[in-house]
Amino acid sequence: MQTIDLTQVGLRETNKTLHAQSGDTNQTAWEIVNPRGSHAIACGLDAPIEVIVKGSTGYYCGGMNQQATVNIHGSAGPGTGENIMSGKIVIEGDASQYLGATGHGGLIVVKGNASSRCGISMKGVNIVVQGNIGHMSAFMGQSGNLVVCGDAGDALGDSCYEARFFVRGSVKSLGADCEKKEMREEHLVLLQGLLDEAGIDADPSEFTRYGSARTLYNFDVDNAGAY
User: Is pTM, for the whole model, over 0.90?
Assistant: First the structure.
């Protein structure tokens, strides 16, 4: 494993080194120590490497991620995983606001709680939160899945499109055009797969599914795959 001390190397050189890794690199395991809440750690990665950040991070850690696995051994600041395209981000602590905003793909796992606007404008990302999430989560969620093992705050899924939300606990309130949905066998299978991938032991039958009532936009179910 390659170890980088952020206080010695600096953020620019750290990210430059990680960006230089390619798909055929044999240096696949990296550890960043002394992050001290720095912003934009491990942003824009595009190689199948694993980066372990030993401590808490600031804004936008793991943003624009492709292929890489980023494991944060602490809590994460606002915008973590923003615009993630693929790969995986695991946060061992809590996550601040707008986690995974505009994410197009990949998986984000939060072992603690997530704050407001979790998954805002999600476009295909899967987010699994072991604890609770804050208000206005998945606002304008277009596609992807948000799984919450705890409770959800006000206005869940406000103005959402075709994203799916699975909540095991209570929902303080639903946003405009978001409603409770039937939990069919296909959704139980999907949810079990997401929980397994996130490494969380929970019973899918204990969750409630929510999604769009489809009254705020022109929707044709035949075109669902385009959203």
Answer: yes
